[in-house]
Design goal:
alpha+beta, OB fold (Dihydrolipoamide Acetyltransferase, E2P), five-stranded mixed beta barrel, two-stranded antiparallel ribbon, 8 strands, globular
Length: 164
């Protein structure tokens, strides 16, 4: 009888270790913080003052044209008019490879990430996002030929970067 018990103990220890490993790999639930927008880097990156610290926030799920691309300056201006100097909520999804906070920004009832796509100043970045609201906003902007969709040859920044 003792040999059967001793046989089960290593199996239980292994199961516990695997369970702990699986739990450590799950992503924590996103948090939301509030702060004042103190800088606009470009259409998809802003600086938010949080607890007297500046946090660089990369808008998640979208990609705007680079500043030297068509609609790059317009996307930055749009974001600036929408949220510069205002208090916003940031849904914090963690850090990207450049140590920026990835997030969704809301100002009042306006979802900034979605608004950029809806007016045709950003692409839904499907490589990193399966957000259906962004997909639908892009579909409508394309159909209406708004913003960058007015140019049938507009090139997403991730394509431009890979050709340079």
């Amino acid at each position: 009888m003792k040999s059967k018990v001793w046989f089960a103990v290593p199996a239980l220890v292994l199961l516990a270790l695997v369970s702990c490993q699986a739990n450590s790999e799950t992503k924590p639930a996103p948090t939301v913080f509030t702060g004042k927008v103190v800088g606009i880097t470009d259409g998809d990156t802003v600086k938010v003052l949080r607890d007297n610290q500046t946090v660089k926030v990369r808008l998640s799920g979208i990609d705007t044209p680079e500043m030297d691309q068509p609609f790059g300056k317009q996307s930055k201006r749009f974001v600036s008019k929408l949220i510069f100097g205002k208090t916003v909520d940031v849904k914090d999804l963690g850090l990207d490879r450049y140590k920026r906070t990835l997030g969704y920004i809301t100002e009042g009832s306006t979802e900034v990430n979605e608004a950029l796509v809806a007016v045709g100043l950003a692409w839904h970045y499907v490589k990193y996002s399966d957000d259906q609201k962004l997909a639908e906003a892009e579909k409508k902007a394309r159909a209406a030929k708004r913003g960058l969709w007015a140019d049938p040859e507009s090139i997403p920044p991730w394509i431009v970067a890979s050709t340079q």
